[in-house]
Amino acid sequence: MKIVRALAGAAIVAAGLSGAANYGLGAWLHADWPGTPLRSETFETRGFPFALGFDATGIALRDGRREATLTAAEVRAPVWDPLALTIRPRLPATLSDGTLSATLNAGTASGELAFGYGLPDLPLRRAAGRVEQAQIALASAPEMPFTAASAEAALARQPAGDYAAHLRLSDIALPEGAADRLLPGADLGDRIASVSADATVGFAHPPALHGPHPELARVHLATLSIDWGGRGLSASGDLSADAAGLAEGQIALTTRDWQSWFDVARRAGLLGRGEHLVESLLRSMAEASPDGSVSIPVSFHKGRMSVGPVPTGYMLRLAQRQ
């Protein structure tokens, strides 16, 4: 009997604590206090006592420089890990980062945000999102949506402090004629079969709920693969940001479709006055290759890009240093 009473007492205490946490989490999100990065216009608690959660509208996340907003979502967390949030947006959803606004519709959509318990910052443990049968329409061009069979991205903290990142996109359809308008003459078409990337990224300050804006410090790109209009490109390498936030390092690019990707780089303004030398170099490499493929280093020093030995004048900044 004593055991039963003890278990009942423990259950009551646990329920009380989880209820308080549930209420507190919702109230914290509903607040708009200075320095609070998350807020919502309305919330209604759900799931107690089996889970912490609420339905919220007008959700906003601020990082000190801009604000990202989501019209409405269901937010849930297990009672044993209240800072591991599962987020299911109500569809269609309006997304905005303060500059661009878009409407998302999808067969399914879900996200995850998990924070550590290190005070006072609450460091990011992992972030992930996945959508199936997605359609995204920019507010500036609602009649020209982008679609994708699936899209997923994830960022997870590693024991050493950096983050493992991955990205997978499949069967992307751009608005009709978009590729030709953006990159005239590149002849890539409006369908991207796949994009995949795996990397390890480090930040000057680890991402945290109450921390400063995370600035990229280094990237180890294990692999990047793109299949656009039947033309493939792969990349790998390492980049870091110098004291001014400019890129240092090297990325190796490999492709059999060098002419198409050269046209992409040229149309995007990446090659500058070096474009003719780069084209000649790539053609010579392809002619000397048994299968016509080329593999060439793209290097950065103080942000300035060179393709092989050819400087292009293009500058890459990885971080905005204060």
Automatic annotation (TrEMBL):
Signal sequence residues: 1-20
Origin organism lineage: Bacteria, Pseudomonadati, Pseudomonadota, Alphaproteobacteria, Rhodobacterales
Pfam families on file: DUF2125
Protein name, UniProt field: DUF2125 domain-containing protein
Alphabetical UniProt keywords: Signal
